[in-house]
Amino acid sequence: QVQLVESGGGLVQPGGSLKLSCAASGFTFSTADMHWYRQAPGKERGLVAAISTTGGSASYADSVKGRFTISRDNAKNLVYLQMNSLKSEDTAVYYCYAVRYSGSIRLGDYWGQGTQVTVSS
């Protein structure tokens, strides 16, 4: 019963901030690399940020680098995306995505349902 549930989306003005959360259940969260993807109308889904199992490594799309921060709390089975200096082009549905490992062996992957972020004046 793997489940990823995103929250924290909403309407924000350009230059504002939002913090998204993804709550994971049904698997050992600390064995999964976690990712945020987004998809705007008429565009393909793209990777926004990723974080390793321990939180020791993180990566970002060039379009959000310096503005967004991904983090995780393995004790609470939560991954976050702090979004600052938001732009209209950040408007999209944001999805949480997990890739589970046993050591270096990939076991499976899971998607959340998404949360809408709208940046508009």
What does this structure look like?
The protein is built from no helices and eleven strands. With 121 residues, it is mostly beta strands. Strands 2, 4, 5, 6, 9, 10 and 11 form a seven-stranded mixed β-sheet that branches. Strands 1-3-8-7 form a four-stranded antiparallel β-sheet, with no helix packed on it. The radius of gyration is 14 Å and the shape is globular.
What is the element layout, followed by pairings?
Elements: E1 3-7, E2 10-12, E3 18-25, E4 32-39, E5 46-51, E6 58-60, E7 68-73, E8 78-83, E9 92-102, E10 105-111, E11 115-119
Parallel strand pairs: 2-11
Antiparallel strand pairs: 1-3, 3-8, 4-5, 4-9, 5-6, 7-8, 9-10, 9-11
Number of strands: 11
Tell me about the largest β-sheet. Answer: 7 strands, mixed
Quaternary structure: single chain
Distance between the first and last residues' Cα: 40 Å
Mean pLDDT, rounded to whole units?
Answer: 96
Low-confidence stretches: none
Q: Any idea what the radius of gyration is?
A: 14 Å
Order of helices and strands: EEEEEEEEEEE
- The global form is globular
